[in-house]
């Protein structure tokens, strides 16, 4: 086979696997095999730039940067939908349609209303040509580069598709991916995103498509647009689109009466929380395309379709008080303490108030009856005040001006919504939070020491920074509450053991703002010691892979501080690892992020511990036993037959030591 053929067949094969995985949710090869093939294609394309194709699966990782999104007129207008909130509204809609149509027999397609950002994608000759946002309905922004990174969006179609058409759908962010993104933000001390919908629509406007590629976005399609399409009904369009390779949700249903429409609505009102993404209603569409045409459009929306909005689960309850929490980074979060109330299956006692602007905007006052809603957010939120119940004596909420914990005057940076307590060194929750972060499993992993004990140590004056941990004496700690002889010994042993923790994790443990696990690995690998890192300039720092100005500035600030320098000197004197052990400094990457790998047998090039370390250094997790959660088994000589059976039963790929080495060098 010549090179071009090889490239083309790899592209086709990889497109098919993307389809199986992201559209059908039914992968037929392992991630490992996929990665190997992708790398093979990547290497061939690199050697043969003459065969570059912007639609190659290798281009899905993004890279194109768009400074200004071009505004382009929609060939077919993108309309809104009229909303309805009751059966009566829906029956009125049906009557209006029947009046125009002259009482014909109607069929309806019922679909869920996906809550994300709408998109219109044009295909020509089976290839993705262009993707536009809705904009004002007449013209939208060209976000093609970003859309191409979403793997559920086919780049090449299959089957007998029309030569040219548009398809419309919704870009969404499933709950699981949203929570994961937020978890990562919380870990580096940043404010989490408010909800999946805004995060999805914000993602479409990111300038760097490589950033978009990293977000777990999905694309659900719901309608074909074009002239001379090979379909007579809307539902047929959905089925055809599915055949051409689009992700069309299977919940959509063709029904024959309004009663069945109501059944569909009732069913999904109860079961929508079982969906992996947010839905805020049902869309009902008259199925026959000729009838659709006859009905036409109002100024804003089609007469042949209507949205039914689910009632957001909402209750009202009393706001008893507002408390203010201080996080590890000093950020202040106002929290509403509510009269406990039942909502969407749980008892709600607290709700987030976000920030001072939010309180002011809604004019929320203590003693108010407030409306609480549970939408896509994990934490319920207050959406308004029942002003009819407000007592005349209520007072405007004054946001705190000083830290509730240390009384320092709060600051608020230009353009930021959050207030901060700037008292980095003496504000108790910041100090305790930093020590708590220092001891966590991914950082210094100090066994025998928990978050509460840290607070206890601090409150008893035994630790005011993490260096103090290394000077704790047994007789000081046994006297603490609930601290037996044995637990005091375990604690000290745990602290002693943490001196073995490698430099990259120590760097993460220091709690430098924006330096999360991955960034710490990169910096450790690049600079090799805290001395080198300390001496790095801003210009130098930003040349390191993945280090931007924000991170670089934060690093510089950290090392400019005399207190920090003193603490680092102390850590060094206790024997904490502040430079990379050269023997250990193998490959470090995020290539195994999210992968769980079980190690079994005896190896030639690695000791078992080194192999485990290599897995972790590259972002993976070492699993203790084979289960359906295992991604790969790295097998050495003498792998036990029981394990072998288990792995093959569960279809888990077994790879050799050499395969593994190839895998982590896949960068
Ligand atoms: P609205 O924004 O309230 O006018 O509602 C119209 C929007 O609902 C459309 O622009 C789509 O983005 C979105 N939508 C979500 N699910 C569907 C669906 N199944 N059919 C049509 N539109 C939908
Ligand atoms: Zn404070």
Care to describe what's here?
With 667 residues, the chain is α+β, with helices and mostly antiparallel strands. 36% of the residues lie in helices and 18% in strands. It has 24 helices and 20 strands. The strands form five sheets. A five-stranded mixed β-sheet has the order 2-11-10-3-9. The chain is globular and about 90 Å long. The site of adenosine monophosphate (AMP) has 11 residues, from β3.
- Strand element count: 20
Q: Classify the beta-strand content into a percent band.
A: 15-25%
Distance between the termini: 26 Å
How are strands sequenced across the largest beta sheet? 2-11-10-3-9
How many H/I helices?
24
Radius of gyration: 29 Å
Which structural class fits the helix and strand makeup? Answer: alpha+beta
Average pLDDT, all residues: 90
The low-pLDDT segments are none
Outline of this structure?
With 667 residues, this protein is an alpha+beta fold. It contains 24 helices and 20 strands.
In terms of topology, how is this protein built?
Layout: H1 3-23, H2 31-47, E1 71-73, E2 83-84, H3 87-101, E3 108-114, E4 117-124, E5 127-133, E6 139-141, H4 144-148, E7 164-172, H5 175-187, H6 196-204, H7 209-214, E8 218-225, H8 234-244, E9 253-255, H9 258-271, E10 279-286, H10 289-295, E11 305-309, E12 313-326, E13 332-343, E14 346-352, H11 356-362, E15 369-374, E16 381-385, H12 428-439, H13 451-459, H14 474-477, H15 485-497, H16 503-509, H17 517-527, H18 530-535, H19 538-541, H20 549-560, H21 562-574, E17 596-600, H22 608-617, E18 621-623, E19 632-635, H23 641-649, E20 654-655, H24 657-664
Parallel strand pairs: 2-11, 17-18, 17-19, 19-20
Antiparallel strand pairs: 1-6, 3-9, 3-10, 4-5, 4-7, 7-8, 10-11, 12-13, 12-15, 13-14, 15-16
């Amino acid at each position: 086979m010549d090179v071009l053929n090889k490239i083309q067949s790899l592209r086709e094969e990889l497109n098919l696997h993307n389809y199986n995985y992201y559209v059908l949710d039914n992968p037929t090869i392992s991630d490992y095999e996929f990665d190997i093939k992708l790398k093979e294609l990547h290497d061939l394309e690199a050697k043969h730039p003459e065969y570059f194709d912007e639609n190659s699966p290798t281009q899905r990782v993004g890279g194109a940067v768009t400074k200004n999104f071009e505004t382009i007129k929609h060939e077919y207008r993108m309309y809104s939908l009229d909303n309805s909130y009751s059966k009566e509204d829906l029956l009125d809609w049906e009557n209006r349609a029947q009046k125009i149509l002259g009482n014909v027999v109607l069929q309806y397609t019922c679909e869920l209303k996906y809550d994300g950002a709408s998109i219109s994608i044009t295909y020509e000759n089976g290839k993705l040509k262009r993707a536009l946002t809705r904009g004002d309905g007449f013209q939208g922004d060209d976000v093609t580069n970003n859309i191409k990174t979403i793997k559920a969006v086919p780049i090449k179609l299959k089957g007998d598709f029309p030569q040219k058409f548009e398809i419309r759908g919704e870009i969404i962010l499933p709950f699981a991916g949203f929570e994961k993104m937020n978890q990562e933000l919380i870990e580096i001390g940043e404010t989490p995103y408010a909800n999946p919908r805004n995060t999805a629509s914000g993602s479409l406007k990111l300038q760097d498509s490589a950033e978009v590629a990293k977000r777990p976005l999905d694309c659900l399609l719901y309608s074909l647009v074009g002239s001379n399409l090979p379909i007579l009904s809307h539902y047929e369009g959905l089925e055809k689109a599915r055949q051409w390779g689009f992700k069309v949700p299977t919940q959509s249903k063709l029904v024959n009466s309004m009663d069945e429409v109501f059944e569909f609505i009732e069913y999904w009102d109860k079961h929508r929380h079982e969906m992996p993404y947010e839905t805020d209603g049902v869309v009902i569409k008259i199925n026959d395309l000729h009838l659709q045409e006859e009905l036409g459009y109002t100024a804003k929306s089609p007469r042949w379709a209507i949205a039914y909005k689910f009632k957001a689960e909402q209750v009202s309850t009393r706001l008893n008080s507002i408390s203010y929490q201080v996080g590890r980074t000093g950020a202040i979060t106002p929290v509403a303490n509510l009269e406990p109330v039942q909502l969407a299956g749980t008892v709600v006692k607290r709700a987030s108030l976000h920030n001072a602007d939010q309180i002011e905007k809604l004019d929320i006052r203590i003693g108010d009856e407030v409306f609480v809603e549970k939408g896509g957010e994990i934490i319920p939120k207050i959406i308004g005040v029942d002003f009819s119940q407000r007592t005349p004596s209520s007072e405007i909420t004054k946001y705190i001006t000083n830290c509730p914990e240390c009384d320092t005057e709060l600051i608020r940076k230009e353009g930021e919504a959050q207030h901060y307590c700037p008292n980095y060194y003496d504000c108790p929750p910041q100090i305790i939070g930093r020590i708590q972060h220092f001891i966590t499993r991914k950082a210094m992993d100090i066994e025998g020491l928990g978050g509460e004990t840290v607070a206890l140590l601090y409150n008893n004056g035994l630790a005011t920074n993490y260096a103090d941990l290394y000077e704790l004496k047994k007789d000081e700690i046994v006297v603490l509450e609930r601290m037996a002889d044995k637990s005091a010994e375990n604690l000290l042993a745990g602290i002693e053991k943490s001196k073995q923790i490698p430099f990259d994790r120590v760097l993460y443990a220091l709690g430098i703002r924006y330096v999360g696990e991955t960034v710490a690995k990169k910096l450790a690998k690049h600079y090799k010691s805290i001395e080198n890192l300390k001496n790095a300039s801003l210009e130098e720092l930003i040349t390191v892979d993945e280090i931007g100005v924000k991170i670089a500035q934060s690093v510089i600030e950290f090392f400019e501080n005399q207190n920090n320098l003193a603490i680092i000197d102390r850590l060094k004197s206790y024997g904490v690892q502040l430079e990379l052990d050269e023997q250990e400094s193998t490959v470090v990457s995020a290539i195994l992020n999210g992968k769980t790998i079980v190690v079994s047998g005896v190896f030639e090039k690695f000791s078992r511990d080194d192999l485990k370390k290599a897995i972790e250094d590259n972002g993976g997790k070492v699993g203790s036993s084979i289960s359906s959660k295992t991604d790969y088994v790295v097998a050495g000589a003498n792998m036990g037959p029981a394990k072998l059976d288990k792995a093959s039963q569960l279809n888990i790929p077994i790879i050799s030591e050499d395969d593994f080495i190839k895998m982590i060098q896949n960068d």
